[in-house]
Amino acid sequence: MKDDETGDEGLNLQEQHYIGRASRNALTDEELILRVQQGDNQSFDILVGRYKNRLYAYLFRLLGNESEAEEYAQEAFVRAYMHADKYKTIARFSTWLYTIATNLVRNKIRNVKRRPRTISMWTDERNSDDGRWIDIKDVGPSPEDAMDKKRLNEMIQSAIDRIPAKYRPSFVLREINGLSYEEIAASTGLKLGTVRSRINRGRMHFKKAVTPLLGSDSRFKEKN
Fold it and tell me: What contacts 191, CB < 8 A, 6 or more positions away?
C-alpha cells in the first residue's frame, strides 16, 4: 500500500515538486511558454521570475515612476498569461513580452499627455558593462559611494526623461535592455530603418541632456 504522501517513484510530494521545478528551470523561455499553452502554470511562474526585474527596469526608465512601472509590469505579465495561446515560436519570448509592455506604455503616452516625473533610476547591473554608460566602479559599501551612485542614477534618469517619447522606447530597449535592432523592430512594430533612426536620435537627445548634468559635478566627469 502506497503512502498518501509519496508518488509512484517513492518520492514525497515536496521532493517531486522540487524536481519538477528544477527540470523547468533548465528549459528555454520559448519552451516554457509553450508549456504554459498546455496549462502548466508553474512554467509561467519561472518566466515571471526570469523577467520581472528586467521588465520593471525597462518600464521604470520609460515612465520614471516606481508605482506605475510596477503596475504596468504586472499588467504585462497578466496579459502575457491570458494570451499565452497567441504566442508563436517565430519570435523570442522576450521580444513578445517587451511588445506587450511597449504597447501598454504607448497607449499611456498617447492617452495621457504628460511627462513622467524624475525620480531615482532602477539599476540593472547586468547591462552596466556594455560600455554605453559612464562606468563608476563600486569599490565598497561606503555611504559616500552609495550617494555618488544614486546621484549618477538620478542624473541618467533625468536625461532619459528628456528624450522625446517618440524615441525613448527604442533607445531604452537598445541601450538598457540590450535588444538587437531586429528584436526592437519586432517589439515596436517599426521598420528596421526607423528603429535605427530613433535610436540614433535618442542617443543625441540623451547626450545633449546628460552632458551638462554630469559636468556640474567633477566627480562624474569622464577621465582621459
Answer: 185
Which CATH topology does 120-224 take?
Arc Repressor Mutant, subunit A (1.10.10)
Amino acid at 115: R
As to burial, measured by CB atoms within 10 angstroms (0-12 exposed, 13-18 middle, 19+ buried), residue 145 is middle
At 155-181, the pLDDT tens digits run 778 888 899 989 999 999 988 888 889
- All three cell numbers of 98: 517587451
Kindly report, residue by residue over 176-198, the tens digit of the pLDDT.
888 889 989 988 889 999 999 99
pLDDT of amino acid 48: 94
Protein fold of 1-117:
Rna Polymerase Sigma Factor; Chain: A (1.10.1740)
- Which residues, at least 6 apart from 73, have a Cβ–Cβ distance to it below 8 Å? 52, 55, 56, 59, 101
d(CA 60, CA 20): 33
